Amino acid sequence: MCAGETGVAVGGYEERIQVMHWSRPDKADEEGFILEEHMGTITALRFHQSSYLVSAAEDSQICVWKMKPHVLYHTFKYKSPAGACIDLAIHPSGKILLSLHKDGYLLFWNMITGHHEFQKKIEPAIFRLGFLGAAGNVFFMASLTGVNIHTVSSDEPITKLSPAESADKLLTVAGADDFVVAGTQNRNLMVWKISAEGKLLGTAIKGGLWTGKVKDLGVCVCPGKQKGIFVALITSEAELVVLDLGEDVAAEGKVDWSPKVVLKTKMESRSICLAVANSMIPGAIHVEKEKKNEPSKKAKAEEAKTA
Q1: I want to staple 198 with a disulfide (CB 3.0 to 4.6 A). Which of 158, 220, 284, 305 is the partner?
Q2: Is 136 left (phi over 0), alpha (psi -120 to 50) or beta?
Q3: 3-state secondary structure string across the chain
Q4: pTM
Q5: pLDDT confidence tier of residue 115, bands split at 50, 70 and 90
Q6: What's the pLDDT at 262?
Q7: How far apart are CA 274 and CA 241, in angstroms?
Q8: Cα angle 258-261-264, degrees, rounded to a multiple of 5
Q9: Residue 198 has pLDDT above 70, yes or no
Q10: Nearest to 160 by CA among 180, 174, 177
């Protein structure tokens, strides 16, 4: 996959990452490829543009992949007390990577130099975070009960987003441009559009287009021929669904509409994390020292077993 193309990456217990095109659903299976380096369950995935993919796993590694060619570009390694990484967020500039960890630690990585800058203890209930908008001065932090929208200049949220049903819980949250999307315990998909003032403009969809619970999802705001707002999601029943929300999703007061199904397929195995390529976001990732072309850790391990 290269810049300008649209695709989705999924990962989970099989310790590998599958990358597929969804701009051509009829070719989704045959035009995909596999990335292998981690030696543990894949726990988080994030694209930067369509050119880079960042992955985290239970092996205490965060990997940066180039999509053309499909090679490992750099590896970040972290130690306790951070614990397993459960989410990743890349600043739109491509200069900063945030990794969120199980015990409430947030690690800051310099994507220019490839170094860990510092870490911060945050609320352990937070399980998703991400930047919104091209400037990267607004971000969200999500817990089971709702999503807080912040600016980088204030610790207090500028607005709070909650499930439409008070007893419902958020299972996963993603954001892109001015949109925040959440999959809930009651199999709902909620979509909010955040204005410059942090106001809630619209909510969203009752999930009748899939059978399982949403495990993870991603949002892509596409220009050009594919203009629109797209959501890709994976479910507990190994379903991969891509939805075109339509241009009227941002209409104030919009509560229910029928999104177009771009792709719906049954995966061979259940995945637990997903990322969607978003080619609108500018910026660059260039770690100071590229990893040399050498056998991967997984390849070395396999070689040692047969020796």
Answers
A1: 158
A2: left
A3: CCCCCCEEEEEECCCCEEEEECCCHHHCCCCCEEECCCCCCEEEEEEECCCEEEEEECCCEEEEEECCCCEEEEEEECCCCCCCEEEEEECCCCCEEEEEECCCEEEEEECCCCEEEEEEECCCCCCEEEEECCCCCEEEEEECCEEEEEECCCCCCCEEECCCCCCCCEEEEEEECCEEEEEECCCCEEEEEECCCCCECCCCECCCCCCCCEEEEEEEEECHHHCEEEEEEEECCCEEEEEECCHHHHCCCCCCCCCEEEEEEECCCCEEEEEECCCCCCCCCCCCCCCCCCCCHHHHHHHHHHC
A4: 0.84
A5: confident
A6: 83
A7: 11
A8: 140
A9: no
A10: 180
Q: What is the mean pLDDT of residues 18-28?
A: 64
Dump pLDDT digits (tens) for 283-306: 445 555 444 444 555 555 555 555
Rounded to whole angstroms, the Cα distance separating 26 from 19 reads: 15
**CA atoms of 147 and 125, how far apart (whole Å):** 11
Complete domains list, the chain, with CATH = 7-306 (2.130.10.10)
In whole angstroms, give the CA distance from residue 229 to residue 249. Answer: 8
CB 159 within 8 A of CB 198: yes
C-beta neighbour count of 294 within 10 angstroms: 9
